[in-house]
Amino acid sequence: MKEIKKEDKEKKNKEVKKEQQKEIKKVQPKEKKEETKKVQQKEKKQENKKQDNKVKKKIKKNDSKKEEGAKNTNSKKIKIAIIVILAIVLVASSAYLVYYFYQSNKNKNLYEEVQEEIEYDETTEELKTVNQEFVEKVKELQGENPDVKGWIRIENTNVNYPLVQATDNNYYLKRNYKKEKSSYGSIFINCNSNIKDENANVIIYGHDMRDGQMFKDLLKYQDKTFYDEHSELTIATEEGEAKYEIIFAFKSRIFYEDEKNVFRYYQYYHFKDEKKYNEYINNCRKIQLYDTGKTAIFGEQLVTLITCEYSQENGRMVVVAKKLNS
């Protein structure tokens, strides 16, 4: 009986094993399928990733080409802009040079024409005749323009011009003696000065022009040797001609209104007394570029010539002369 039970049990175990094997066989294909599916999905993902990378590379390449194209376009635009700017600068510079030389020649011809009308030679003994020619020329010019007050000249320099005076110091800054507009302006007397006043300081202005015209030659008085060879100037009016001896040459500037304890040489127009006269003389002596060995005394009319000087802000070159007794 026991043996029968044992056999039944073994038989039953065999059947259970068979069933388990069947179940295992059923499960294994599913696992393989799932694994295969996972592999396929992974491969697909990798393929898709490769495709995405290819697309990205292509896009990047296209973007690079576009950027390069944009850079080239911008570079071309910049080059064109530079060429255009250079062309404009060249045209503007050329136009300025043409205008500059035109104005220079026009101004030179204007004064040469009026100078040539006066024939003189101071090597002759006919000095009175020479003086009279300038006096007559002043009278003639006054007929054309009442603002003409005289004629100033420094021998063997370019300073040889009519003198004008207006009620406004700005008027002749950009006008010639004929009242025509000109960047060269005129040689003009300060509106507060009186050339007929023997106690006056006759302040006279002129531009410092690059081509040597107007008062450019005043800058040469920085050199003592030049002073030694050009120590006198002449001024003619309708009443006669007078000689002036240069006594000081100095550099200064136009001062701001709030600056104190400065020498405003350009504000001395008339000397009401000896004290004011000596104050001017002493201040000029303090800042003179060199000692001329000359001075002036109260009662001798002074002339102060002023032009621009560019070694400092609002710089001026100043030459002071006294009237000699005739």
Using only CA atoms, what is the Rg? 50 Å
Give the termini separation.
Answer: 178 Å
Total tally of structural domains: 2
Number of DSSP helices? 4
Biggest β-sheet strands, sense, barrel: 8 strands, mixed, barrel
Explained architecture:
Strands 1-2-3-4-7-8-6-5 form an 8-stranded mixed β-barrel. It is rod-shaped, with a radius of gyration of 50 Å. The chain has 2 domains: 17-116; 129-323, Sortase, Chain: A. By secondary structure, the chain is α+β, with helices and mostly antiparallel strands. The model is unreliable at 124-128 (pLDDT under 50). The relative contact order is 0.08. The chain has helices at residues 2-116, 127-144, 224-229, 274-287, and strands spanning 148-153, 160-164, 187-189, 201-205, 232-237, 240-253, 302-308, 315-323. β1 and β2 form a beta hairpin. The longest helix has 115 residues, at 2-116. It contains 4 helices and 8 strands.
Short description:
With 326 residues, the protein is an alpha+beta fold.
What tags apply to this protein structure?
single chain, 47% helix, 8-stranded mixed barrel, alpha+beta, 8 strands, 4 helices, 2 domains, Sortase, Chain: A, 326 residues
What is this structure's SSE topology?
Elements: H1 2-116, H2 127-144, E1 148-153, E2 160-164, E3 187-189, E4 201-205, H3 224-229, E5 232-237, E6 240-253, H4 274-287, E7 302-308, E8 315-323
Parallel strand pairs: 2-3, 4-7
Antiparallel strand pairs: 1-2, 1-5, 3-4, 5-6, 6-8, 7-8
